[in-house]
Design brief:
It contains 19 helices and twelve strands. A six-stranded mixed sheet has the order 6-9-10-3-11-12. By secondary structure, the chain is of the alpha/beta class.
Length: 580
Amino acid sequence: MNRAFLKKLYKYLKPYRLFLLLSVMMAFISALITLYIPLLTGKAVDCVLGPGKVDFAGTFGIMARIALAAVISALSQYLMNISNNAMAGRVVRDMRDAAFSKIERLPLKYLDNHPYGDLLSRVISDADQFSDGLLMGFSQFFTGLVTIFGTLFFMLRLDFKLGLLVVVLTPLSFFVARFISSRTYRYSRRQAEIRGKETAFVNEMINGARVTKAFNREERVLQDFSGINEEFREASLKATFFSSLTNPSTRFVNNVIYAAIAIVGANSVMKGLLTVGGLTSFLSYAREYTRPFNEISGVVTELQNAFACAERLMDLIEEKPEKPDREDAVTLINPEGKIDIENLSFSYSDDKKLIEDFNLSVNPGQHIAIAGPTGCGKTTLINLLMRFYDIKYGSIRVDGVDTLMVTRKSLRDSFGMVLQDTWLKSGTIRENLIMGDTSVSDEEMIAAAKACHAHSFIRKLPKGYDTYISEDGGTLSAGQKQLLCITRAMLSKPSMLILDEATSSIDTRTEIKIQEAFHRIMDGKTGFIVAHRLSTIREADLILVMKDGNIIEQGSHEELLAHKGFYNELYESQFAGNAT
């Protein structure tokens, strides 16, 4: 933890400084009132001089003041806790909002390179840990500081030499607390990192539970989880050891201080330098003085853990977002769909080349199919068209405008996209279908669903289009989920369409009907079709055959078969023995 981190934290505390000020004021009042009570108690003791020598009037008056002080102290603590809760809750809410907002604006490169479970752990678990630590810190830290300085004032006032003894012995507690807390922070940070790793693994295994069972990998998964869990146990053990060491260590030091005060104070009473009531008050102050050190040491330990979690959360918040659109970026409005790619080169890592010197010219309304073996760059080309990744060398132009000079929103609004991996959010069927355009009418939605052959199964659901589905489609089949995604793309009314293995989970009969629907909807629109099943791209105007990031063949289906090249080999491998 450093000064730079505290400055970042203050940025989130600043909007709620009134809560902070109120909390400090109430802590100050509560602590002072609490410290006033031992002084009254000592006076009450001095009112009892011996048998038959009790000042009842004075004692009752003092007890009334003690009761009033206790009520004021309790009320102050109540207001302080309300302020702390309000402030801590709002700060963590703002940090979570900032983290989630940053995730939405991060480039896909970051999301592709970081486990989703780790991001989830930062936004949820780490934020919760920080909230708990922040709440404890505000609730006890300020009160403890006021108590320490207040008791010092009262002790020095009662007996200067005895108070000075306390001041001399105090650094022992500071030394012990600092020694332990510095190690607690390091192990707490490690604990938070492994917690994120464990969350990522659990998330991954739950999502892939069917595959795990299908390949009988349960035992191996258990072993892997046990390994990560063991790492977490070791890190937690070290963090817990040092955090639990703080309180007994400081208590030992404080008890030594208390014993020394009692011995020296008793000697002062015997010499007549201090009354019995004064010693009673002084010992109460000594106990009150040492108590905050125990609490603060525990708070510091908890804060170290909280700050370690907050630092991971802030690391996410401070990640560089996707490069903003240029100030002079233009907005695409109903583009014709002419696309020109010149001298395009791209790779995800510098040490592994993927697409090199790629050139392509697509006229408006053309349907371009992209075929080739896995890893040849088909999906990467789609990512570059949509500006999910920005190109490094070369250019991609839509209607003559470089895509780097076009706003991402207008570019992506111009494309409809259906991926092989379906994604549906928790909500109704209707909410999922109109995600791309919330202004569509029910008639348009139903017409699109019928065209995509989704209407027949939707109307059989319990509430039809208002049926609620859980994350990723719930009990819907893979084919049904893909039909919903296709319908969603159609309802966005794009100028251009990208189909990346869009019918991979659909049966052959439905696929033929979907292809017919695509042809009707794509009529006059530029379309890109990525497919492994070559039967789905026979009708394309132009088929690009890619290998190792380059176009090695291009032409119509018949031309490529006649050429007897790589495409012909791919086709024969799928349709061996069938007529072309």
